[in-house]
Structure formats: structure tokens, C-alpha cells
Amino acid sequence: MRYVTLKPEEIEVLENFHRNSPNGTVRKRSQCLLLSHQRHKIKDLARIYNVSRRTVERWYDGWSETGAGSLSISGGRGAKTRLKNYPREVREQLELHNRNLKNVLAYFGERHNIIICKKTLQNFLKDTGL
Fold first, then answer.
1. Are the C-beta atoms of 93 and 103 separated by less than 8 Å?
2. DSSP letters along 30-67, please?
3. How does pLDDT run across 71-106, given as a tens digit for each residue?
4. pTM for the whole thing?
5. Which terminus in the chain has less CB density within 10 A, N or C?
6. Domain positions in the chain
7. DSSP 75
């Protein structure tokens, strides 16, 4: 049996996260750690949160290594922007085609074989501030 043993101040922090965090993942993981401190088994916690036993163990390991920083989802997940390496070219094409996005999309399709939709380009421009 493996349990997380918490100090009183850690219990306060986790209870605060569980009650007040806007992030559902943080609330779920903090509650799981609190239940582990109350001696609930990993198998039971995995069933409650609909995750594998190994996932609960990773939450424990993360808590012991980095503390509260391990409760949120780490960055770098999700689809990566295809235009990430071409901000200068995007800027040049926008200036050249007077911000006509269809021409910019056609340029990247022909020149770099990058096929994206207009909305993806708009999101890229918004994120990069172009």
C-alpha cells in the first residue's frame, strides 16, 4: 500500500485548491492526494477518477518531487502550429498581399507544402501579434 503523507500546511493548500481552483484538473488531483492522505487505496482512487493505477502513482510522484506545481497539466500538449518557424515570411506575405489571407494561404501551400485553413492562420496571427 502506498499513501501520501501530508503536513498540516500541505493539507490546507490542497483543500484550498480543491475548493477554489478554476481548473478542474487541479481540483481533481488535489482531492485525490487528500484522499490518499486519508488512507484510500490507489486502486480505489483510480476507479473513482476513472484513470489507471499508474496515473495515480504519477500524481503521487509529481507531488513528492515538485509539490503544488505538479497539480496542473504541463505545457507542450496539443497540436503544434505549422507556421511556427515562418513568422518572418508570414509578415512579408501579409504586407505584400495587403493582408489578403487567401493569397497567404496559397503561398504557403505552393511554396512550403503547408496546407492550413483560414481560421488557423487567423489564430496564428492573433497568438503571435502580427
1. yes
2. HHHHHHHHTT--HHHHHHHHT--HHHHHHHHHHHHHHG
3. 888 877 777 778 888 888 888 888 888 878 888 889
4. 0.64
5. N
6. 8-70, 87-128
7. S
**φ, ψ for residue 40 (rounded to 5)?**
-85, 140
Q: Which three cell numbers stand for residue 108?
A: 504557403
Cβ-contact 63, 70 below 8 angstroms:
yes
The Cα 18–Cα 11 span in angstroms is 10
> In sequence order, which residues have a C-beta less than 8 Å from that of residue 10 and are 6 or more positions away?
67
98 within 8 A of 57, measured Cβ to Cβ: no
**Which residue is listed with cell 503571435?**
128
CA 20 to centroid of chain Cα atoms: 19
* Cα distance between residue 28 and residue 41, in whole Å: 16
Residue 23, classed as helix, strand or coil, is coil
Distance of CA 74 to the CA centre of its chain: 5
* Strand (E) or helix (H) holding 73: none
